[in-house]
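User: Some background: our group keeps a shared notebook of sequences we're curious about, and every so often someone picks one and asks for a predicted structure to add to the entry. Today it's my turn. The entry only has the sequence so far, pasted here. Could you supply the structure so I can complete it?
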Amino acid sequence: MLNALRWLIRLLLILLLAVLGAIGAALVSNQVPILAAPGPMDRLPVYLTTNRIVTTADPALPELRLPYYEVAPATAFEAATAAITDLGWDMVRVDGDQRSLHAVAVTRWLRFQDDFRVQIREEAPGLIGLHVVSESRVGEADLGANLRHWLDFRHRFEQQLRRRPAFPEEDNDDNNNGDDPA
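Assistant: Of course. Here's the predicted structure to add to the notebook entry:
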């Protein structure tokens, strides 16, 4: 009886270590900033209990703060579209009138599909807000996968913005008669 109990305890410990190892490997694979502010004690519950991220004015994690850019809405929309293409995500819906995009990102390990939605909103003349929702279709916890989608997208979006003029000049033939203004 005592040997059976020891065997059961060892088996449970091995299973616990395997589960903890898989969670740790997923967090490492998703490259979540576990040690960044507000710290691991505040971040771990988010990674282990949520499957959705949203950029907001008052987020649980600082990297989810709603970003603003001084750029024309059309330029931001082009950059967002190019960023999603660069990431290799499947574009599901493009709405140029609403300046919104819906793409599907696939997780690295188990190939789960996550919905990634972006909307470019003009908050003031010359200032846009990048409103993002990324959510898993399956499960209660994503182990930071949607945060990783957002961080990857933001990086590519900002790269794309640097390649474009923030406020492209519109062609205005009325003011340009071909003469050199100098």
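Suggested note for the entry: The mean pLDDT is 90. Helices lie at 2-29, 40-49, 73-87, 145-162.
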